[in-house]
Each structure stands twice: as structure tokens, then as C-alpha cells.
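REQUEST ID: PR-0412
SUBMITTED BY: lab tech R.K.
PRIORITY: routine
TASK: structure prediction, single protein chain
INPUT:
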Amino acid sequence: MLMDHKPLTFALHRQGDAWSAQQQRHLLYVSEYTTDIRHVAGALNMVADALSRPPDMPQLPPLGSIAVVAPTQGEQVTLEKLAAGQMLCEETQQLASRPDMRLVELSGQKLLCMDNTGSLRPLVPSALRRPVFDSVHSLAHAGTHATSRMLSTQYVWPSG
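STATUS: complete
OUTPUT:
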């Protein structure tokens, strides 16, 4: 098995201090598949590199001193879909009058973005929240807190 996690290459053959119970379970699981683990640097191991390094979120040019991030990861949610969804969503339209909301034109699309954290975050209409979540979650299948943090830095929608 080729992998980019060098410490694991020595783990199955380690002699010395005992492993914790959790480490033993993990190693037992790995050993069911192979005992021959070889290190290949991530940049040379295309498969491991692709899995461990999610693609960059596309960045749009800065708007003044504020960078705007476009919600186009995985092409599941495009700027066009987001703009159209905002126009149809009652909840989004109610939030449009807030003082921290700005109407921003990006690639010919007018988007409502919240401007309260130093970067503009597009307001996600209710119909597109699940696709946006799935798009961010599928990047790395991070835990609850990491996924929540990634979402809140890129997008905004009311909780409730």
C-alpha cells in the first residue's frame, strides 16, 4: 500500500512502548488489508494528494478592500442559481433591508451579501442550503465544527 502518511509506515513494525487501545484497533484494521506500507510523498502520490488536499475555493477579485468568495465549488451551486434563488426566497428578501446587507454585482449577477465580518458572504436562500452544505462537506468530510466553520466563513443564512 502506498501512502503519504510516513509515520504509519513504521507503525505496524514498531517495537517498544505499547500502543493505546484505540491505536491498536486502528492498526488491526489496517493490517487486515496489508502489512506492506510504503511512503510516497503526497506530491508524487496523485491519489493520496487528491484526497487529502481539497480543491481551492474559487476566489473572485477583491471588491474594494473586501474579498468576495463565489459559491461555485463542485458546480452544484452557481452564481446564477444563487441569484435566482435569492429573488424567489421570501426569507432572503426580508433580510435584504438589514444594514449589513449589500447588493453586489458579480459576473453579471446581483447577489445579496452580508458585510459584517470583513468579507462579503452570499446570503443562501432556503432552497439552496442543502446543496451548499453538501458542496462544502464533500470537500473533506470534516467533522461538525470544521464544516460549520467552513460554511460560516464562506456563506450566511439565518439559523432557525
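NOTES: Residues 129-140 form the longest helix (12 residues).
REVIEWED BY: pending
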